[in-house]
Amino acid sequence: MKLDATGWASGVRRIASPNCDARPPGTAIALLVIHNISLPPGKFGGKAIAQLFTNALDTEAHPYYAQLHGVRVSAHFLIRRNGEIVQFVPCGKRAWHAGASLWRGRSGCNDFSIGVELEGTDHVPFSDPQYTALVRLTRLLQRTYPICALAGHADIAPGRKTDPGPCFDWQRYFAAL
Fold first, then answer.
1. Which residues have a catalytic role annotated?
2. Is 59 exposed, middle or buried (0-12, 13-18, 19+ CB in 10 A)?
3. Is the peptide bond before 125 cis (omega within 30 degrees of 0)?
4. Domain parsing of the chain, residue ranges
5. Distance (Å, rounded) from C-alpha 98 to C-alpha 102?
6. pTM to 2 decimal places
7. Among 27, 68, 87, 148, which residue's Cβ finds the most Cβ atoms within 10 Å?
């Protein structure tokens, strides 16, 4: 896997999201933020995550989706339960994954971070293929960008977010890196 000049990865499925924009000029990518997502909550597989990130989710298709009406979000990458990596936003652009956020005194984490969603929940262990893919992706991103920190969504939005949750094995992840 390699990244081109704009930050699109080779060897992964690409589904372009319109939910992104330019990073502030001169802003280095210094943070990798790990999230979890499943739609509806606790259900894995299907097209709902991609539909959410591309503004195509039918908010009447499931009762939970009603609260997502008009929401415009994205992440750079999604890692499915089987380890498949899907890219929605090139790394050179700002994905809309962090929301109101703060990391080491810097607000607006979307400006200087890459967002990786793991298909999952706070309460279900992540799969071996997901850890393998996440480590592979992290290594690529660290070789390409001056990433100096790895954090969960909960770390940059405490009290508002809980992901990747207590089932994410940070020790396993760090040891594998």
1. 117
2. middle
3. no
4. 13-176
5. 9
6. 0.96
7. 87
